[in-house]
Write a structure and sequence with these properties.
mainly alpha
């Protein structure tokens, strides 16, 4: 069939997953977290904490595919690819700082996202088994380390870092790694999982089935175990101690709409048992990691089962997934009152704008403008490392 073909080596299923992650983040930004009766809204229940985590896992998949896929590159080529990814990370982080300037009222993820890319580079030589083991261990160790370290760090000062914050590098680094909305230290577990997925053979149906079934089991299991632990009387007492004038179930319901990236600084260690979105606990990381793996696996299965005509159509419809950097930046700008006055019921309009732009770009065979710019600059950085320096001509004595 004639139609816009994906670039060689690009998994359309991953673009569909990126599109779902983008729409999920838009939903959590635009739709109220609770319905009028006080219950969680469908958007919050489906996407709260999961959409941004899916982006982090997909970032790990991107790193793995860019550095060799199932067989990691070695030597100069690995160094070149890492240089390109490092340049990409710095550009994305810089864009995130700039997007912190408009009064969008949102916690912009891009600066954290760039830092996460940098944190993943030391692990590009590992394969799937080692990456899975490291991700599992880090999902337990990092939240505990954060719980111990955060009381000794500067208080969090902002939701979205801005360019002026680089004048306080210590505080900025503390927020990006420990105290911020998307703390890189804990979220490295999600990135490592994504790298493990990207090192697998994603063309095999068995891999997609394992991701789907295993991811669902992990997500559901984390929720059930957390629920059982936080129902214990001693845990409830610890959660309430000195902080809440409420009951245990009411506290857990209150944080079900999401925390601010971490558990309460200086709070009881039992907070590490909750599974609330953006709490950064082992159970939160396990739940969102499992959800992300399941979405990726399901996208792989669906794309593999579709006839070619339907696959091409889906690639156009989900074209926003090929330019999430551009469209996420646009979404941040659209959330400023000057461009799009707040309207809790406007999700379908926001989604329509982003999907229409993405479909138009894919149908025209073009990359998003920010993707083009970042791609060229990161490729140039890779080429500087890939191409050996020419020998200097001998000078006259």
């Amino acid at each position: 069939m004639n139609g816009p073909a994906p670039p060689p080596g690009r998994f359309v299923a991953l673009d569909v997953a990126r599109c779902l992650a983008l729409l999920g983040m838009v939903a959590t930004h635009v739709v109220a977290a609770r319905d009028p009766d006080g219950s969680l809204s469908a958007a919050q229940w489906l996407a709260g904490g999961r959409a941004s985590a899916l982006f982090a896992v997909l970032a790990g998949v991107t790193i793995a595919l860019a550095t060799g896929g199932p067989t990691p590159y070695a030597g100069r080529e690995r160094a070149a690819r890492c240089a390109g990814l490092a340049a990409r990370a710095l550009l994305v982080a810089g864009l995130g700082l700039l997007l912190g300037l408009p009064d969008s009222g949102l916690a912009v993820i891009l600066t954290y996202y760039g830092v996460l890319f940098l944190l993943g580079l030391p692990f590009v030589g590992l394969r799937t088994p080692a990456l899975l083991a490291l991700a599992a261990a880090w999902a337990v160790v990092a939240p505990v380390l954060s719980h111990l370290v955060r009381p000794h760090l500067p208080a969090r000062g902002f939701d979205s870092p801005q360019p002026t914050d680089v004048t306080e590098p210590g505080r900025l680094l503390a927020e990006l790694l420990f105290t911020g909305y998307y703390p890189g230290l804990a979220w490295l577990a999600l990135l490592l999982l994504g790298m493990a997925i990207g090192r697998a053979d994603l063309t095999r149906r068995g891999v997609a089935v394992v991701l789907t079934v295993g991811g669902l089991a992990l997500a559901v299991g984390a929720t059930l175990v957390s629920g059982a632990l936080t129902a214990r009387a001693d845990v409830v007492e610890a959660l309430l101690r000195g902080r809440w004038e409420s009951t245990g179930p009411e506290v857990l319901d209150a944080v079900a709409t999401g925390m601010s990236g971490t558990t309460p600084t200086g709070g009881a260690w039992q907070w590490l048992l909750v599974v609330a979105p953006h709490s950064g606990t082992p159970f939160d990381l396990a739940h969102t990691a499992g959800s992300a793996a399941a979405v990726i696996g399901l996208c792989l299965l669906v794309l593999a089962a579709l006839p070619e005509t339907a696959a091409v159509a889906l690639r156009v419809v989900a074209g926003a997934g090929t330019m999430t950097l551009t469209l996420y930046a646009l979404h941040i700008l659209l959330r400023t009152e000057a461009l799009w006055p707040p309207d809790e019921g406007a999700f379908h309009w926001h989604a329509l704008v982003l999907l229409a732009i993405g479909a138009a770009y894919v149908a025209a065979g073009r990359r998003g403008p920010l993707e083009r710019l970042v791609g060229r600059l990161s490729a140039a950085a890779a080429d500087l490392v890939r191409t050996p320096a020419a020998p200097r001509p001998a000078g006259r004595e």
